[in-house]
Specification:
With 387 residues, this protein is α+β, with helices and mostly antiparallel strands. It has 9 helices and 21 strands.
Length: 387
C-alpha cells in the first residue's frame, strides 16, 4: 500500500494551513476531516475573525509579523481579499497590566500603536461609553480576516500543490510505529508522519495514545446586535475591531455576516463535550452569558439594541495558560500535535502551519518552541503522560 509522507487530521484553519505548508514543501500529504466541508461544528466557521499585532505575550506579537506576510501571499496566490484593515481598539482601566504588557510587546516586536486617554476615547469614539478611568491603545494594523474564505483558500492551495482532502471521514484508531497506521470510518492509511489538529476532539484522539493534556472545550456564544441607527459601528465608517481587557473580556467586530449588525461576544463559555455542543451544559451557560452581554451592551455600546438579534455557537479549546500546544508526542516523535488554540489561533494559523511542518520535516523551527511545549504542563502538574 501507498505510504503517505504526512497525514493531517482536522481540516479546520490550523490543519488546513499545516497541510498547505507540507504540500508546498514537497510532502505527499493527505488531509482528513470527519465532517463534510464546509461545516459549522468546530472552531473555524463563520465569515470573520479578528487579526491584530497587539498581544500581551511577546512571542505571539513576533509571530504575527510573519502571519501578516503569509496572509498577504495567500491573498495574492488566490486572488482573494482576506484581510480588511479596520484598526483595533483595546480598552481597559488605567491600572490594567494587560495594556501595559501589550504596549511592551508591540514595542519589542517593532510594531506601531497609538495611546488614547479617556478624553481621546470620548472624542474619537463617541458611540462608545466608558468610565473616566479607562484608556485605550489603537493597533493600526488590526482588522478582520474573512474566515470562511481564508479556510477555503488554504484548502485550495493545498490541493493545487498536490495534496488530497478526504472529508466525511472520521479517524477511529491510530497505531503508532515507525510507520503510523490510521484507521478511519472508510479506510486505512499508512504514513511516515501524523499531524493531529483535531480542535476540540483532541482529547478523544490523544487519550488512546497515552496522553492526557489539560484541554477544555468550551462553547462560545457568538452574538450579533442590531444597530439602533444603521452604520453607527460599521466598517465603512471606520469603526475598529474591539477588545476589552477587563474581566468580561468582550471582543467585537463590524459584522461581515449581516448588514446593520455588530458582532460582540464574551471570550469564554461553559465546558462542553464537542459532540454535544448545544446540549444542556451549553444552553445553561449560554443564558448566563447572554444576560451578562446584554448588560455590557447597555453600558458600553449605547447605539446597539440591548438584546441580540442573532445567536450562533463556536467552540474554543482552552489550555490552562491559554497558550498553544505545538509539539511532538513525548513518546512517538513522528506524531505531531497542534491543539489548545484557546480562542486566538485563527490569525496565527499561517505560522502555526509553518512550524508544525518544520517539526514534521525535522527542520529547525523558525521560533523558540518552549512556550508551546507539552512538558510545560508537567511542571505545573497538569499533564498525565502514561508512558
Amino acid at each position: 500500500a501507498d505510504v503517505w509522507d504526512a497525514v493531517v487530521v482536522g481540516a479546520g484553519i490550523e490543519g488546513s494551513a499545516t497541510a498547505f505548508h507540507l504540500a508546498k514543501n514537497g510532502c505527499h500529504t493527505l488531509l482528513l476531516e470527519q465532517f463534510p466541508i464546509p461545516h459549522s461544528r468546530g472552531s473555524s466557521h463563520g465569515a470573520s475573525r479578528i487579526i491584530r499585532k497587539a498581544y500581551v505575550q511577546e512571542h505571539y506579537a513576533r509571530m504575527m509579523h510573519e502571519a501578516y506576510d503569509i496572509w498577504q501571499r495567500v491573498e495574492k496566490e488566490t486572488g482573494t481579499q482576506l484581510y480588511v484593515k479596520t484598526g483595533g481598539l483595546m480598552v481597559a482601566p488605567i491600572t490594567s497590566e494587560g495594556l501595559d504588557q501589550t504596549e511592551k510587546s508591540l514595542t519589542a516586536a517593532g510594531s506601531q500603536f497609538e495611546q488614547l486617554t479617556s478624553d481621546d476615547l470620548k472624542r474619537r469614539f463617541p458611540d462608545l461609553s466608558f468610565p473616566a478611568n479607562y484608556r485605550a491603545i489603537l493597533d493600526p494594523e488590526a482588522g478582520i480576516l474573512k474566515a470562511d474564505k481564508a479556510l477555503r483558500c488554504f484548502q485550495d492551495l493545498f490541493v493545487k500543490s498536490g495534496g488530497r482532502i478526504h472529508d466525511e471521514e472520521k479517524v477511529m484508531r491510530i497505531e503508532p510505529g515507525d510507520v503510523v497506521t490510521v484507521h478511519t470510518s472508510k479506510s486505512t492509511y499508512k504514513t511516515h508522519k501524523l499531524l493531529l489538529l483535531p480542535g476540540p476532539w483532541a482529547g478523544q484522539l490523544l487519550g488512546p495514545l497515552g496522553l492526557q493534556l489539560p484541554l477544555k472545550p468550551v462553547r462560545i456564544s457568538v452574538l450579533y446586535w442590531r444597530e439602533k441607527r444603521p452604520g453607527t459601528y460599521a466598517l465603512n465608517r471606520g469603526f475598529p475591531v474591539y477588545i476589552d481587557y477587563m474581566d468580561t473580556h468582550a471582543y467585537g467586530l463590524p459584522s461581515l455576516e449581516y448588514p446593520g449588525i455588530y458582532k460582540l461576544c464574551y471570550h469564554s463559555g461553559p465546558a462542553i463535550d464537542p459532540d454535544d455542543r448545544d446540549g444542556e451544559a451549553g444552553s445553561r451557560g449560554d443564558k448566563e452569558i447572554v444576560a451578562m452581554m446584554c448588560d455590557y451592551v447597555r453600558q458600553h455600546f449605547p447605539g446597539l439594541e440591548s438584546v441580540p438579534a442573532i445567536q450562533e455557537a463556536c467552540i474554543y479549546t482552552w489550555t490552562p495558560d491559554e497558550g498553544f500546544i505545538l509539539d511532538h508526542h513525548p513518546r512517538y516523535r513522528n506524531i505531531i500535535i497542534g491543539a489548545g488554540f484557546s480562542g486566538h489561533g485563527f490569525k496565527l494559523a499561517p505560522v502555526v502551519g509553518k512550524v508544525l511542518c518544520e517539526l514534521a520535516m525535522d527542520k529547525q523551527p523558525s521560533y523558540d518552541m518552549t512556550p508551546f511545549s507539552i512538558n510545560r504542563f508537567s511542571r505545573a502538574g497538569n499533564l498525565q503522560a502514561k508512558l
